[in-house]
Each structure stands twice: as structure tokens, then as C-alpha cells.
Amino acid sequence: MVQVPLIQLNNGITMPVIGLGTWRAPPGEVYKAVQDAIDSGFRHFDCAMLYGNEDEIGQALHDKLKQGTIKREDLFIVSKVWCNSMRPDLVEPTLKKTLKSLRLDYLDQYLTHWPMGFQESDSFYPLGEDGKLQHSDVDYVDSWKAMEEVYRKGLTRSIGISNYNPAQVQRLMKTVSIKPVVNQIEVHPYLIPQDWLDVCKTHDIVVVAYSPLGSNDRPWATKDDPRVLEDPVIMAIAKKHKKTTAQVTLRFLVQLGLVPIPKSSNPKRIKENLEIFDFELTSEEMSEIRALHRNIRYHKHVEALGHRHYPF
Ligand SMILES: NC(=O)c1ccc[n+]([C@@H]2O[C@H](COP(=O)([O-])OP(=O)(O)OC[C@H]3O[C@@H](n4cnc5c(N)ncnc54)[C@H](OP(=O)(O)O)[C@@H]3O)[C@@H](O)[C@H]2O)c1
Questions:
Q1: Which of 58, 157, 173, 201 is 20 to 30 A off residue 11, Cα-Cα?
Q2: Is residue 283 part of a domain?
Q3: What is the domain extent for residue 203?
Q4: How far apart are the first and last CA of the chain?
Q5: Between vectors from CA 263 to CA 248 and to CA 28, what angle results, nearest 5°?
């Protein structure tokens, strides 16, 4: 079983440098994926209420913990508060719902999923009579106070943000009592947003790289979109190292000091994605992959275009 290295966060705790993504890992599939991932060596799981599968992930974790092969303190469980629950008084009850689903007493990390608030409602995408997404006037700076409170109460061992652009990080940092430990953003060889990485480095915030393999399963993909895992430069480097393009891509992100969270529900690929700690990319290879950046953002969250806190 692969032993995953740890990275220290700005509040002193450690987090495994790779985690399993769970978006589009549907109920009926995610139970097995989580168990396979634990057997392969994954300890870090990226969840969110939005993904609609926290109950089944909770069952998988519960059953593994009951078997006694792993202990709760070995796991690093992340979840996120969705945009419809950003109002400060909703943060704690929303986190508690996630804890109930995941069958846990505490999280290891809780993130604000986006800097944007949507109308407080039972719907994740509340629409008005005109069919348009209803925004909330909540400010992420105020939501953060509630995040600090759930941290103080011990409901989560760390708090962080996701999809905050450099200006939003700077603005938030002027008001915080407790710093975010991570900013979870889209990063892969076709999107290496240097200014986003730099602002996080300045504030000692670790960058978690979502869609690290290029998010091929996204429903809005078209057949002409360039695919990271089929890039000829990455294919050539993979051949040299006798690794797959996914392994080279994940290794590249880890060598940049980032924490990728690839999603897979396939036992072979879950295992493959962890086998990245037995080789190293040279500085020339790192530069070749860096040069592939072409500002391709797969997750634009276009539904929220026009929101005053839209980050892109
Ligand atoms: N904070 C946010 O706003 C946000 C946004 C998007 C995603 N995320 C998080 O980031 C995670 C990862 O992002 P993502 O799901 O968009 O995309 P991704 O991890 O870049 O790609 C997932 C796709 O790659 C396939 N795959 C996995 N390993 C592979 C391998 N070794 N070789 C070939 N194909 C492979 C998967 O299929 P199989 O399952 O069939 O292997 C799946 O179709 C999400 O699951 C979620 O947890 C967060």
C-alpha cells in the first residue's frame, strides 16, 4: 500500500498531498470507490454537500472504521458549504448536516465552496420566476466569521476557501482572525494560474488542485476540447518514465507543491493515481509541462455569471 506524504498547513496540522475527488461519483458507485481508495492508501477525501453522495461516503467510511483497519485520526475528510448556505447563521447547521451524512463527529477541513452566495433556499440553484439564478446579498467576508466559529467549536480541524481569485483572497485576508489553510482551485497542465498560486504562497495558503486530470467527465465537455491526458508532451514524458499520462500530470502538480484531488471510481485507476511517489520529473520536464498552460478553464460556473462575487 502506498504511503502518501503529508504537507503541513498554516494552523499546524498535516494533510495528505493527494486526495480522492468525489464529484460525479454517484451513489451506488462511490461506496466501493471510497473503500478501494482506502485499501490503496488514500486517506484524504474531497467531499461536498452539492455532490449528493455524502450519505454513501459516510457508510463506506463507517464500515471501514468498524473493520478496524484504519482509525479516524488516519483519515482527512474535507467537505464544503454550498452557495445557498453562505449566510453566517446557516454555516454551522449545514456543516452539522454533512457530519450526520458522513457519520463523523468532526471534519478535517471545511471550505466555502465558492465566494458567491445564492438565495437561501432548499435548492442548490434557486431560480426566480424569470428562470434566473437568485443571488444572495451575503458577503463571503461575513460567511468567514461563521467558518471561524465552527473551527473554534472543534467541528472541523481546519477551514479554507475554494474558487477565490487573488483579489478576493487579499480582501478576505484583511479581515480574518483565523487564516484559511487552503484555496481549492482548478489547476492542471492547461491551467496554471500563476497569480492565483502566488497570492496563496504569500499568505501561506496551500493550493488544492481540483480537476487535476482535466475533468474529462464534465457534462459540458465537447469532443473538440483539448484533453490533458492525451497531450503529446505529457505522453512523451510518460513514456520515458514508464508511467501513464495521469501519473505524470499528478506528479507534476505535487512537485509544484500543490495537492491534487483526482476523482476516480475505477479500482485500477484509483491505485494508479497513487503510484506517483516512486519517480521524479526533471526540471526540464517540469518546464515543458509548465509551458502547456493555455488558460483553459473547464469549470467556469457560467450559471453564476454576473454575480458580484463571480471569481473569473
Ligand atoms: N471546489 C470546486 O469547485 C470543485 C470543482 C470541480 C471539482 N472539484 C473536486 O475535484 C475533484 C476532481 O475533479 P474532477 O472530478 O472535475 O476531474 P478530474 O479528477 O480531473 O478527472 C476525473 C475524470 O478522470 C478519469 N480518471 C481518473 N483517473 C484516471 C486515470 N488514471 N487515467 C484516465 N482517466 C482517469 C475519471 O474517470 P473514472 O472515474 O472512470 O476513473 C473521471 O472521468 C472532484 O471530484 C471534486 O472532488 C472541486
A1: 58
A2: no
A3: 6-213+258-263+293-304
A4: 39
A5: 150
Ligand 1 site residues (CB inside 6 A) read 21-24, 46, 113, 162-163, 184, 210-217, 229, 244, 246, 261-266, 269, 272-273, 299
Half-sphere exposure (Cβ direction) of 273: Cα atoms closer than 13 Å: 28
Strand order in the sheet with 206-210: 20-21, 44-46, 76-81, 109-112, 159-162, 182-186, 206-210, 259-260
Residue nearest to atom 14 of ligand 1 (CA): 211
**212 alpha carbon to ligand 1 midpoint, in Å?**
7
Atom 29 of ligand 1, residue of closest alpha carbon: 269
Total domain count for the chain?
Answer: 1
How many CA atoms does the CB half-sphere of 286 hold within 13 Å?
A: 12
Q: How far is the CA of 25 from the centre of ligand 1 (A)?
A: 9
The 10s digit of each residue's pLDDT in 14-45 is 999 999 999 999 878 999 999 999 999 999 99
Query: Whose C-alpha lies nearest to ligand 1, atom 33?
Result: 246
Q: Is 106 a catalytic residue?
A: no
CATH code assigned at 193 = 3.20.20.100
Q: Which of 51, 151, 164, 210 is catalytic?
A: 51
- Predicted local confidence at residue 19, as pLDDT: 98
Q: Provide the pLDDT confidence category of residue 261 given band limits of 50, 70 and 90.
A: very high
218, part of any domain: no
Convert the pLDDT of each residue in 202-257 to its tens digit.
Answer: 999 999 999 999 998 899 988 889 999 999 999 999 999 999 999 999 999 999 99
- Atom 42 in ligand 1: residue holding the nearest Cα: 217
The answer to whether position 100 is within a domain reads yes
For the record, the C-alpha cell of 176 comes out as 480574518
Report if residue 251 sits inside a domain.
Answer: no
Report the alpha-carbon distance of residue 118 to residue 65 in Å, rounded: 36
